Amino acid sequence: MFGRKKHQIIDLTPKEAEHAAKTGELVLVDVREADERRQLAPKVKSMHIPVGGIADRTGELPTDRPVAFVCKAGGRSMKAAKTAATAGLDVRNVVGGMTAWDAQGLPTKKGSA
Q1: Using CA of residue 46, residue 48, residue 54, residue 58, what is the dihedral sign?
Q2: Quick one: fold of 12-109?
């Protein structure tokens, strides 16, 4: 699940992303806006960097393990993943975003920005 070629983006299901974040195999980054995150966020530990800030903040992301991006439905997270991959990071995209995460009954919480 975690092997890759340079700049390749691997899709993960929400269940795969939740498990890998919980075990520390990857870092989950929520790229939605703060108001969206306050309404519903992954219960598992995650960073929050809105998609518009990814290019300026790639230095805050780990280089020792993959980074998985999540948004509402998958579009913004793919944009963030492409930006981070171009910066040389090992990236994943959570397919279906928080909509799929919630629909699959994975743990969520009322988030903080």
Answers
A1: negative
A2: Oxidized Rhodanese; domain 1 (3.40.250)
